[in-house]
Design a protein that fits this description.
Elements lengths: L1 E7 L5 H16 L3 E7 L3 H8 L3 E5 L8 E3 L2 E2 L1 H11 L4 H13 L2 E7 L3 H9 L3 E5 L3 H6 L9 H11 L4 E5 L10 E3 L10 H7 L7 E6 L10 H4 L5 E6 L6 E3 L2 E4 L7 H6 L3 E5 L2 H10 L3 E4 L6 H12 L2 E3 L2 H5 L7 H5 L11 H15 L1
Parallel strand pairs: 1-2, 1-6, 2-3, 6-7, 7-8, 8-9, 10-11, 10-14, 11-13, 14-15, 15-16
Antiparallel strand pairs: 4-5, 12-13
Helix pairs in contact: 1-2, 1-15, 4-5
């Protein structure tokens, strides 16, 4: 077995989803690869995506931005945790490097955790960074506020600069001179639209809309209002302990038997937070996107510009979303034309590049 470590940011599920897509594509190219995953994202997420090709190591790899809700950050708590986490405890980095050596890892891939770069440098093996933004770039946005993160920006930027191979994936937030630029990365669809709709007991001929906040729990205040849209069925993950069908609502647990990219592909539109993995899955499915920007998150403007240029969709403000104002123009979103994608999944481009690095090392 060829062992590769993967350090994954626990900020939402988007980084883990992108990493799973890359790992699946790499394993398809070289079935002897086994991944050592370091993160605090739940193990079940990887079992659902890439079962049988990884070992899981529970490790806090970075702080990111602490979220109060899917749309709002908690800056004081973020600062508190950063002060406890950075700079890295060098004895901890040394222990991790010894563990990496014991696991006989040939290289470390990071999405987007710089800790993996520090560990790879200490272990004397190559590192690969996969990102559409880095934490120093995000924190830099707050320097002019009462969120004193300048020291963290400088510290993390120095570590990111140590990386051996740098890959960026669209939508890119801050273009740099990198080794590879790839189109959006998403996990591959496994089931047909018909199979998913039948599995969810959705009648034939109705329109279907997915409401998703990217894996972060959210309390929706408008569920009763959805019953008025009797010609549309709504799939809502994270709203129930078990799968339940209530009128035109399909309520799913956060961890269900249905693969998220399959659900996206089975829908006529997606309503949800503007985040990387949802954007990438909607992009490859080609369905309309009613997206909710995050005004205080630096990545949001770049993602929104990408949607406007490359996808069909419409912005929904947080107030409109929470107050169900978006229902007045839901049919406009649902009736937007789909887009047939002919470009490859960015996961394939990234997998081919990293496998070449392995072959040459």
């Amino acid at each position: 077995m060829l062992s590769i470590a993967y350090f994954i940011s626990p900020h939402g599920y988007g980084h883990a989803a992108r990493a799973c897509a890359v790992m699946a594509a790499m394993h398809k190219l070289n079935p002897s690869i086994k991944f050592q995953i370091f993160t605090t994202i739940p193990e079940w997420f990887f079992e659902q995506s890439i079962a049988g090709i990884f070992l899981y190591h529970n490790l806090l790899t970075d702080i990111g931005i602490v979220q109060e809700t899917p749309l709002r950050e908690d800056l004081p708590e973020t600062l508190c945790r950063l002060n406890s986490f950075l700079p890295y405890d060098q004895s901890h980095i040394m222990r991790l490097s010894k563990e990496i050596s014991k696991l006989e890892c040939r290289l470390i891939i990071c999405d987007i955790s710089p800790m993996g770069i520090a560990v790879a440098r200490k272990a004397g093996i190559p590192s690969v960074l996969v990102e559409n933004f880095t934490w120093d770039w995000v924190y830099e946005n707050y320097i002019s506020t009462d969120f004193p993160v300048g020291k963290f920006v400088d510290y993390l930027r120095k570590i990111y600069n140590y990386v051996d191979y740098h890959i960026q994936t669209e939508p890119v937030c801050s273009y740099q001179n990198v080794d590879l630029s790839a189109v959006p990365i998403s996990r591959e669809v496994r089931a047909t639209s018909q199979q998913i709709r039948q599995g969810l007991s959705i009648p034939e001929g109705v329109k279907v809309v997915l409401i998703t906040m990217g894996g972060i729990p959210e309390k929706y205040q408008f569920l009763e209002r959805l019953a008025d849209q009797s010609d549309i069925y709504f799939i809502i993950p994270g709203c129930s302990q078990t799968m339940r069908l209530v009128d035109n609502l399909v309520l799913l647990p956060r961890h269900s038997d249905f693969f998220h990219p399959d659900i996206v592909n089975a829908c006529d539109a997606v309503i949800g937070k503007l985040g990387y993995s949802t954007l990438a899955e909607v992009y490859h499915a080609g369905v309309p996107y009613g997206y909710i920007p995050r005004s205080n998150f630096k990545e949001s403007d770049i993602l929104e510009e990408f949607v406007k240029k490359q996808m069909n969709g419409r912005a929904i403000s947080e107030v409109q979303f929470q107050g169900a104002g978006w229902l007045s123009y839901l049919h406009e979103i649902v009736d937007l034309p789909g887009i047939e994608r002919n470009d490859p999944n960015g996961a394939v481009e990234v997998a081919q590049f990293i496998c070449r690095v392995l072959n040459n090392s």
